[in-house]
Amino acid sequence: MADTTSITALAIPDHAKESDGVWGFTRAQLVALGVLVAFLVVSPFVLYPVFLMKLLCFALFACAFNLLIGYVGLLSFGHAAYFGMGGYLAGHAAKAWGLTPEVSIIIGGATAGLLGVVAGWIAIRRQGIYFAMITLALAQMVYFFCVQAPFTGGEDGIQAIPRGSFLGLFPLDQDMAMYWMVAGIFLLGFLLIHRIIHSPYGQVLKSIRENEPRATSLGYRTDDYKLMAFILSATLAGVAGATKSIVFGIATLTDVHWSMSGEVVLMTLVGGLGTVFGPVVGAAVIVTMQNYLAEMGAWVTVIQGVIFVACVLAFRRGLIGELGALLKVKL
Amino acid sequence: MDDIFGIPAPLLFGQLLLGLINGAFYAMLSLGLAVIFGLLNIVNMAHGAQFMMGAFCAWMLLAWAGIGYWWALILSPIIIGFTGIVLEKLFISKLYKLDHLYGLLLTFGLALIIEGVFRNEFGSSGLPYRIPPELSGAWDLGFMFMPIYRGWVVVAALILCLATWLIIEKTRLGAYLRAATENAALVQAFGVNVPRMVTLTYGFGVALAAIGGVLAAPIYSVNPQMGSNLIIVVFAVVVIGGMGSILGSILTGFALGIVEGLTKVFWPEASATVIFVIMAIVLLARPAGLFGRA
Amino acid sequence: MSLNRREMLAAGAATALGGLPRARAQGGQVIRLGVLTDMSGPYRDTTGPGSVVLTQQAVQDFGSRGFQVEVLQADHQNKPDVGANIARQWFDQGIDAVVDLPTSSVALAVNQIAREKNKVHLNSGAATSDLTGAQCSPNTVHWTYDTYMLAKSTGAAIVKTGGDSWFFITADYAFGHALERDTSNFVRSAGGRVLGNVRYPFPATTDFSAFLLQAQASRAKVLGFANASTDTVNCIKGAREFGLQRSMKFAALLMGIVDVKSLGLEAGQGLNLTEAFYWDLNDRTRALTERVRAKNEGRPPAMVPAGCYGAVLHYLKAVADMGVPAAKASGVEAVNRMKAMPADDDAFGASTIRPDGRCIHPAYLFEVKAPGESRNPWDLYKLAATTPGEEAFRPLAEGGCPLVRS
User: Fold this and answer.
1) A215 occurs within a structural domain
2) Is any Cβ of chain C less than 8 angstroms from the Cβ of A47?
3) What is the pLDDT of residues A205-216, one digit of tens each?
4) Which domain holds residue A92?
5) What is the pLDDT of residues B221-233, one digit of tens each?
6) Which of B34, B177, B42, B178 is nearest to B98 (CA)?
7) What's this model's pTM, rounded to 2 decimal places?
């Protein structure tokens, strides 16, 4: 109903009045960051490293997605395009051109960023649900391109991508060596996003989300700010996809399909839109669920659907948002 | 034989006609989306799943109850429309006071559930559904062979679209509807039961999708993913036409069907992407869509 | 209830959640098989639960020969990373062989892992001929079919029956291109001509009528569909509607019994297609069908599950021959033993496995029956031609498999 006055905005925590602690983290967030780092260090000795690497790739992907929805209020339904494209280019660079993994990942991220320039330039002309539909349609175009393009290997994908050696010096064939590199990339990406949000640029983004006409009237070219956020988000999603393809040695159509776009929305929603740590927790929940529900067959999609519905109806702040509300802190 | 751009004219006419048939499905689906969006402000991501349910419902009626095509054409939209009403009452109605994106997320979740359940129940390879005997066969139009059923699809879609447009633009009920779209609180104050109207509108939009499904059942494979492939294209159609306009969505649907049909002749490999390219161009030139209000 | 103990064991293991085989006192005397297949996606009906049932049937038919066999199952959701993850964890937890692996991208990913961990990969469901070509592995047996075989059997055999001019409707991606290219080659070398083709965007196309009209205008005698599953079904439905069957014969390059069932005989009659297994082929296939029918939701087995049956049975025979500890210790040795022994089972009859991992057995060209000819709901095919195994598959030297040169 078009009764706009009574509409409640997205359940995104208000970041406007944050006290500046260390690097813009509040005390509660610092504690949470400590827990996260401790988890990164300890977990590979307890849990399966390959599983953890997958989890971290998706966590970074979800954080990149969250940059758009959580801080600019734009819901992209086509983020798989950047994730998958980053994966394809990194895989191609590592396999066909024989480049080292870190260079391949940079190439993957840069390609996704370039794609983000074009897609963002078109998509930011509309907001809300239109933005969602436009990004979905553009991502579908990327998907068709990947099916037909020769270098992606069609439905076979790019297989047997070598992990290579970090900087050409440290071989990554051992899962533990690879893990430390992935953990490093994740942590860098995570802190970068946090830094962006707490910069003056990030403050303008938030003001656009809260009240775009007002930001415009204050003299900000809001479209430029939104486009920049879109490109950053696409680039980081590309880095996540690139890292994933190096870890698994494969880059395939799964990662560009619209269902992947849906999954990253789900991860962020489960963890908590606009929270700092929510996307990480959400990614952990969904990836773990997919792993352990593999025996459930077609019910996996049904369960994902049920989680979507449950989150929207009863649980809009997500796990971390609810936890934060419970403890009366921002996480 | 006359050639047009190197293509024999008969073949070209044939392709135009075929484009019209595809356009009929685009028009029906985008019309349903537009009707729902107009009043509920919700992008119904489950529309593709409901299109699929319409086709499956026709199959079930035939296989389990022996009810044929013509009754299915009436019963299936009623049944599926009713499930839409239930969904609206149970879930969607809880979201009207929230950001519209939640409606999109909720219906996306519903689409996942519906498709998953159907895949568990019926598998993924599809079920057979025959063209009704009255409509099988083909007319020889001279320049091409026109299957009677395909002609019927275009006629049926045109009738449905026009009827919907007339109801909304020319009847009292339609006037309430349009008024509620503008200002629901005011219409409510005049004594119109707006929540019930909203519920019925959603049911009606879903029923339109279901009719599309029944019309599609005899010519396309009836399988759980038949709707999800179509719906993303329909979203692009809707963005091109502009969400608010009923007539706009009908015209855009048919027009884009024809454009796509022509692309299939001149550059088949690009026929999947042409609609998305048009969408990008339209957004750059007219962000609100061809028929939309800025 | 007439379930015997082994069936109950197998069923129990198959439904166990979590996928963690319990450690057992006699450790070395259990062979663990993991059926990794599509339980939720587009290939569910042609592989999926049927592959699990036929794997269990192979275990049962093998009988007890001094060791136990456990069967687990998982859904790879057609995602290579999910499949690779499951396979990795399975291998680390003591699974000895993965079975089925439909979807080429998943099969190729798991192929790498089986090699790395020195386990066994018994593939039935994947179509890519790369598995025994450029990406072949000493740990892999590719049992049932591949794109080369489909093209050879369908292309060459139809030309011999007079269908000497072809038009292709091709899905515009690597799989469609490979099918079209291979089939075109066989058509030409058998003396036929290819009059044209049209490539449509995959997977975005639901309406094929535009392409069908172009095919009709070509005046070719045979219309080849270089695509799969619902696309093929939609193509054939449309072709019949536009009356193409009056001037053309239809050849589906990849189509299975489940697709024909979904198409219906009315629309499918007269269609040519190739399979390596059909339940009503001979007494042995009928006997196998009788044994599994009740467990398989009343349906006869399809080709890919039958391939799982053949591959698993032969693997278990090789294990019995070489001893359980040796088989568990090295996947390469187990596969080598499979290659050294002649295979024989009810689904495929006598067959052999080449050094590149390709299982050699005949390919059958079928014609779909008219509704009047069909005597029961699954009586769908009549045999049109048989290509002997030596001719049906790509010659060993042409595959480019590195194992062959050494």
Assistant:
1) yes
2) no
3) 888 888 888 888
4) 21-327
5) 788 888 887 888 8
6) B42
7) 0.83
